[in-house]
């Protein structure tokens, strides 16, 4: 299992949500991230999901 970070921003760049979670791989992390965004109603906000070493898994502007 690897550690991932999900962050959501508003239009000014203010951090609205920041959390970490674990997933088996990048595909699983992307699915978990998208599900969490839907749950929190943040899917239309700018967001990113990165690995612990900073590799981008998911991004929407």
UniProtKB/TrEMBL annotation:
One Pfam family named in its UniProt record: YhzD
Protein's name according to its UniProt entry: YhzD-like protein
Organism classification: Bacteria, Bacillati, Bacillota, Bacilli, Bacillales
Organism superkingdom: Bacteria
């Amino acid at each position: 299992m690897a550690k991932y970070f999900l962050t959501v921003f508003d239009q000014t760049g203010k951090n609205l949500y920041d959390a970490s979670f674990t997933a088996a791989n990048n595909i699983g992390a992307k699915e978990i991230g998208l599900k969490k965004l839907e749950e929190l109603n943040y899917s239309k906000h700018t967001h990113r999901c990165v690995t612990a070493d900073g590799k981008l898994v998911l991004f929407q502007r």
